[in-house]
Amino acid sequence: MFWKEAQAGHAIPGRTGAVLLDEEILRPQCVGCNVFGRGQYHIYTTKLIKEKGFDWWERKLIEAKQIKKWSRTELESTIESYKQRLKTLEN
Hints:
Strand order of the largest sheet: 1-2
Number of helices: 5
Structural class: mainly alpha
Number of strands: 2
Distance between the termini: 17 Å
Largest sheet: 2 strands, antiparallel
Oligomer: single chain
Order of helices and strands: EHEHHHH
Shape: globular
Low-confidence stretches: none
Mean pLDDT: 90
């Protein structure tokens, strides 16, 4: 799939700050899987567990329950980092 058509699929549902930008659980997904298929978690999580291990997955589930309050500086820095990474994809 062309990267501009991809959406950020999260292996853990919800939008808690602790996992929202966790690149270990983010993968590109098409709109069909991510939105209409509600993330296809049964497939997604199985693949991640095979790749990273069950202990890793259990840690991620614990992390997802943590509260993360992003500062404006952290968010601006993250946005800038993503912009720079996108530039490399466009070239």
